[in-house]
Amino acid sequence: MPFVRFDNVSITFFKQQGNPFTAVEDFDLSIEEGEFFCLLGPSGCGKTTALNMLAGFDRPTNGRITIRDKQVKAPGRDRGVVFQGEDSLFGWATALENVGFGPRLAGVGRAERDRIARRYLSMVGLAEHGHKYPHEMSGGMKQRTQIARVLANEPDMLLMDEPFAALDAQTRRVLQAELVRIWKATGKTVLFITHDIEEAIILGTRIGVMRAGPASAIKQTIAIDGIDAGDRRSERFMEYYRVVHDLIEVEVGKSLEGELS
Amino acid sequence: MSAGDGTGRLAATTALQGAAQRERSAARRRARRKTVTYVLSFVTIFSLWHVMATYVIPSVLFPPPWPVAERMIEMIRTGDLWAHVSISLQRILIGFTLGSIAGVAIGLLMGSFTDVKHFFEPYVNFFRFIPGIALITVAVIWLGIGEASKVFLIVYTTIFIVIINTMAGALAVSQNRLRAARCLGANEFQVFWFVIVPSTVPYIVTGMRIAMANSFATIVSAEMLGASLGLGTVIWTSRLFMLVEDVFVALVVLGILGFLADRLFVLVSTRFGGRFGSVA
Does residue B200 sit in the same domain as residue B132? Predict the structure, then answer.
C-alpha cells in the first residue's frame, strides 16, 4: 500500500465566465513513505493544482486521493505546505512566533513552543534570527522560516510549491542543499513542485514529468539514483539532465503553442 | 605585528565613532531645520491673516488674529472655552469609540463570512450615502436634544467608514496565508482570530482615522441644532449676536483639537499596533 495515492484524479474548474477548465485529468501517482518526489512540468501544466488537491485546498471532481488509504478531504496538520510566495508568513509575528504557530494551535504552552520553535529555527540555520519580523528578513530567510514553521508542526509529509523559485541562484543552491540535509535528517515524505530540471534532479529520488496542460497528467516517472547536491556537473547528472530535458522540451513547446494560439 | 594590529583596530574604531558622531549631528540639524520650517509656516499664515484682515479686507466680519487671540484668552480665563471643548470632546469620544467597536466587529464578520456580508451589504451601501448632517432632525425628534442624539450622530458617522475599511482588510488577506494557517491545524475560528483579525489591523486603523475627522465635522453640525454647550453651539449662537471673534476662536480651536487628536491617534496606534504593519 503506497503512502500517497492519486487514483484517476481529475479536476475541472467552473468559472463564472468562460468555459469550464479541466486542469488535471486521469492523474495517477503513488508516493512511498520517505520518498522525495519532484513533480516537474512547464508552467500552467497543473502541478500546483495536483499539490493543492493533496493539501486539501481543492477537491477533485473525479477520482480519489488517499494518504495511508484514508481519503483526503480537507487541509490537515499531517501535510505541511511551503508556499512559493512569502505572503503566507504572518507579518505581525516574529520568526519565533511564526514557527511556534502550529504548536500554539495545538495548545502547547508558551515556554514549550518557544523551545520547539528555536529547535526548528536552528535546524534551518536561523538560530540567531528568531526575533526578526518577516519584513526584516531576506527572501531566503523567509523561505527558511516557512520550512521551519511546517517542520515544527511535525507533519508526516511536506508539500512544497516551487519554494525556491523566487530566490536568486546562489541562495537557491544553498537552500537546496539544506533541504536535502533536512530531508535526510527527518525522513519526511516530500512532494516538491518545480519547473527547474536541475533542481528536480538534485533534490528528488523520483521525478514525475507532466504533460503540458490543460487536462494534464504525469507523462513519465524517472527514478534518480546517486545524485548529491554537489553533483551538478557530473557525468551521471548530465545523463539524467538529457533524459528529462528531452521529455520536457516537447511539452514546453506544446504549452507555448497553447498560449499563443 | 600584534602592536600594529592593535593600532589598526583602534584607528578603525575611531573612524567608526567619528562617522556615528557625524550622523548624529546631521540628524540634529535635520530636526532643527524641521522645527524652523514649522515655525515659519505658522508665522506666515498668521501674518497673511493679519495683512488680509487689517489692510486688504478691513471689516468687522473678518477680525485680525490679535483680537481673536485676546478673545480666546478671555474665554479660557472665564472657563467658557473649556466647558464647550470638554463637552464636544466627550461626545466625540463616546460616539467614536462605540461606532468603532461596532464597525470593527461588523466589518470583520462581513469580510470573513459571505452570508454576513450579503446580509449587511444593503444597509451599509444605503446608509453610507446619507450623511450624518441629514439625520440631525430625525435624531433630535427621536432622541431629544440631550446627549443621546449627538452621540448617535457620531456613532452613525463613524460606523460605516470603519465597517468598509475593516471589511476590505479582511477580504484582502492573502489566500496563501489562510491556507497556511489551515494546514497548520487552524479551525475556522482560529483562522479568523489568529490570522484575519491581525492581518486587518492596518485597515481598521486607517478607517478609524478617517472616521475621527468625520466625527469632528459631524459634532459641529449636531451642536448647531439644539445644544446649549459645545463648539458647534459657540459658532451658531455667536453668529446670531455677531460675535465674529468667538466664531473664529471656535474654528481655530477645532483645527487644533483635530490636529492633536490625529497626532495622538497615530502615536498610540504606532506604539501598540506597529507590529501589524504600517498602521498610520
Answer: yes
Q: Looking at B52-79, list the stretches that DSSP marks H as alpha helix, in order from N- to C-terminal side.
A: 65-78
Any CB–CB contact under 8 A between A250 and chain B?
no
Residues B146 and B10 both lie in one domain:
no
Please report the ipTM that was assigned to this predicted complex.
0.89
What domain range is B33 assigned to? 1-58
Contact A154, A171 (CB under 8 A): no
**Does residue A141 lie within any of the structural domains?**
yes
Q: How many CB pairs under 8 A join A and B?
A: 69
pLDDT in tens, B203-220: 999 999 999 999 998 999
Q: Which pLDDT does position A53 carry in this prediction?
A: 93
Indicate if A57 and A30 belong to the same structural domain.
Answer: yes
Whether residue A162 sits in one domain with residue A55 = yes
Same domain for B96 and B44: no
Looking at the fold, whether A142 and A194 belong to one and the same domain comes out as no
CB contact burial B192-206 (16+ within 10 A = b; e otherwise)? bebbbbbbbbbbbbb
Determine whether the interchain pair A102/B185 forms a contact, defined as Cβ–Cβ distance below 8 Å: yes
Question: Is the domain of A255 the same as that of A133?
Answer: no
| Amino acid B1: pLDDT | 45
- Report the C-alpha gap between B67 and B42 in whole angstroms: 17
In chain A, residues with a C-beta closer than 8 Å to the C-beta of B276 are 91-92
pLDDT digits (tens, 9 = 90+) for A73-98: 999 999 999 998 878 999 999 999 99
Counting beta carbons within 10 angstroms of the beta carbon of residue A47, is it exposed (0 to 12), middle (13 to 18) or buried (19 or more)? Answer: buried
Per DSSP (E only), the strands in B23-173 are: none
Of A56, A74, A88, the CB nearest to B180: A88
pLDDT at residue B159 in the model: 95
